[in-house]
Amino acid sequence: MVAMPKPPFRADHVGSLIRPGDLIAAREEAESGGDRAQLESVQRQAIRDVVALQEELGFQLVTDGEYNRGAWHRDFLLRFSNVKLIPSKISVRFHSAEGTSERSPPSWQVAGPLARPKPIFVDDFRYLASITRVMPKVTIPSPTVMHFRGGRNAIDPTAYPDMEAFYADLARVYAQEIGDLAAAGCRYLQLDEVNLAYLCDPQLRAEVSNIGEDPASLPRTYAKLLNDTIAGRPADMTVCMHLCRGNFAGAWVAEGGYEPVAEILFNELAIDGFFLEYDYARSGDFAPLRFVPKEKTVVLGIMTSKRPALESKDALKRRIDEAARYAPLEQLALSPQCGFESGVGGSTMTMAQQAAKLRLITETARDVWGSA
Q1: Is 109 helix (H, G, I), strand (E, B) or coil?
Q2: CA distance linking residue 257 with residue 253, whole number of Å
Q3: How far apart are CA 119 and CA 13, in angstroms?
Q4: In Å, how far from its chain's centre is CA 336?
Q5: What distances in angstroms separate CA 221 from CA 45, 216, 218, 228, 272, one per listed residue?
Q6: Strand 238-243 relative to strand 188-193: parallel, antiparallel, unpaired?
Q7: Residue 203: in which H helix or E strand, if any?
Q8: Integer Cα distance of 283 and 244 in angstroms
Q9: Phi, psi dihedrals of residue 62, rounded to the nearest 5°
């Protein structure tokens, strides 16, 4: 079986990778008023190293490990004008092997008209593309993150008396960034989407109702926002979506299978591929894959990035066989269920354990599909 002609690839990964200690230290120093040039130097060397690792392991794509940011979402969203962090009105429970804790992660406030004063990750992409011989992949937070935790009450009513205007502006500023990434040569983009997965959890649907939003209508509202965001992409740009139920230091937020959003997710979104979290039973079964149309790819996140124990190749193959009962094998691919460090300090394993997991992804893909 030949390799896919374009991404997502048979062996893929979500994007974030464990940050080396010197990079964390350089970022902490720079954020405390230290030398930004030193951070850039350390960051570029760390990216060169992690790109070399991905190529050595046999991946046809590379990311910068999200080493250009401290967290998967914050460093991107706060680069838009009039976006601020505020306390969240949604209370969520983080679950892990150690137990459950209740938190209210910061939310986003749109305090005036949205604008993108300058490109955000375009220079980072150019650097990544300059140091790899395979396809560079860019990951950015989904635009839904700007709305979900705060809802209407976190959007300035003077700037946006009409929520339709807010969604249109949000799609516009995102489209500007995507357009500049495309002009710089980006042909593989991933939107990191947590909120459609959160809307599969009855408890979080209740929290959404408590802040005055309708959890039944939000999936379709978000589908329109997402489609408007990527409508101007080049025809040869692959846009994928990663769905996650929360991941930080082995903890997660949401539970529930994809059934409540599956039809909208797979058939109303103009997305080419879906990275789906499937490492534990809390993500449900593979039955929602029956809605996947023949032109789209599902990347099965059946290996966990939350715990260091290495899965067996046979176990991964059995899960792939289970998924193939609902979607053809040629429409499937393989990845970890999430990134390995969505924010500084958010990993549960060593770099050697991470490398072993990534190596197993490429080896299993070759066994199943004939190539990575």
Answers
A1: strand
A2: 13
A3: 25
A4: 12
A5: 41, 10, 5, 11, 19
A6: parallel
A7: helix 202-210
A8: 9
A9: -140, 150
pLDDT tens digit sequence for 318-363: 999 999 999 999 999 999 999 999 988 878 899 999 999 999 999 9
Read off the amino acid at residue 175.
Answer: A
CATH number of 21-369: 3.20.20.210
- CB of 227 within 8 A of CB of 270? yes
The three-state secondary structure class of 247 is: coil
Q: Which helix (H) or strand (E) holds 96?
A: strand 92-96
DSSP characters for 229-259? HHTTS-TT-EEEEEE-S--BTTBB-----SG
What does the DSSP 8-state code read for residue 98? T
Which SS3 state, helix, strand or coil, does residue 68 take?
coil
Task: Give the model confidence (pLDDT) of 264-284 as tens digits.
Answer: 999 999 999 999 999 988 899
The one-letter amino acid at 352? A
Max CA distance (Å), the chain: 57
Over the stretch 118-163, which tens digit does the pLDDT of each residue have? 999 999 999 999 999 999 999 999 999 999 988 999 999 999 999 9
* Sequence ranges of the domains in the chain: 21-369
Say which amino acid occupies 184.
A
Q: List the structure tokens of 135.
A: 């396809």
Closest listed residue to residue 324, CA positions, set 358, 363, 368: 368
DSSP H helices, 7-90, are: 21-31, 36-56, 74-77
Burial of 365 (0-12, 13-18, 19+ CB in 10 A): buried
| Mean of all residue pLDDT scores within the chain | 93
> Cα(298)–Cα(328) distance, rounded to whole angstroms?
10
Q: How far apart are alpha carbons 174 and 68 in whole angstroms?
A: 19
CA distance linking residue 95 with residue 123, whole number of Å? 37
pTM (predicted TM-score): 0.94
